[in-house]
Each structure stands twice: as structure tokens, then as C-alpha cells.
Amino acid sequence: MKVKIIRARKKDAEAFQKVRLATWRNAYAHIFPEEVFKQQEENLPEYIKNTPERFKNQYQYYYVALVDDKVVGMLAVMQTSNYERYKSLGYADLEGIYILPKYQNLGIGTKFFNLAIKTLLKNDATKMVIGVLKENHQARAAYEKWGGVLDDYEQPFVKLEKNYAEVFYKFEPLSAFAKSNAQKSHSAKSK
Q: How many domains does the chain contain in total?
């Protein structure tokens, strides 16, 4: 299966948001009530409408993974973190890696992660943070595998007036992760 990763285009907005929603549902179905997903589905037309404007922001980077010209994954990276705590400390933000379940565990997430680091380094970022729900064990395992350090800080993530714990993985300095992942990739190709 050949995977192609490109900058997200205006025509990718609908697929981008549908991948995000389907992946979010898959990752959090055991945590959130169904009403959370129904709300997101109801808001999907608005998300799709606003997405092309987000693609144009010069401090935000959006990519899609294509298999046979079908969007199967998406990556969102911010030059400046959306989390106040980390924004004030100068962190960039890996806002999300979303890959349709059928295409998970094929290396697309690692490709996205490496692309996020490369993109941020090219734009002078030196450190990055990823926020994730504490109960999302699959994503957390990936962040730990990639070398993220769990911060001791947690904050509430509120859905339908209920608090869920959000935890954060830090990657710093980013240059060390670029070198580390390049070496792992080279080692894997050498075998």
C-alpha cells in the first residue's frame, strides 16, 4: 500500500474533518457518551466550512495522508501551542494525528510525527507539546514510543459539563527527536 503525504488542500476539507471525527469516535467511544459524537456530527458542516481558512494560516500546518487518492489520515501542527500553559513557555503544538482505524499501525502516524518535527524545526520551533486524554492509551503509547516525556501537569477537558483528565507529552529539544527518528528510520531500512 502506497501512502502519500501532502499539504492539505481546500478540496480536502470535508475528508479531513470526516477522518478527524471517525478517528475521534473510535478512540473515545469507551470514554464519552454517544451524545458527544452526535454533537460533533451535527457541527460537521460548520467544521468543514471553516477548515479551508485554517489551511491558509501561516502558523498552522495541515497535512493529509492519501491512499489511492483517498484521505485516510490527517495531521495538524501549530507553531504556537493553543494551551495557555505551554504557549507561555514557548511550545509548539502537535494538535492532532488522526488516522482511520483501518490504516492504523502501518507507520503513517510515525511519518506524520516526523513531518511535524521537520516542519516545526524549519519554522524555528525548539520544543513541542501534545495534549491527549488520559484514557487514550493507544495514543499515549505512541507518544511514549516516540520519546515524549509525560509532564506532571493535567487539566480538565470538559464535554457535556463533565471533566475528563487531559495529560501532556513534551518533546524537547525538537532537534534531538529529528536526529533520533532519522537514525531509527535508517536502522530499519538497513535490516
A: 1
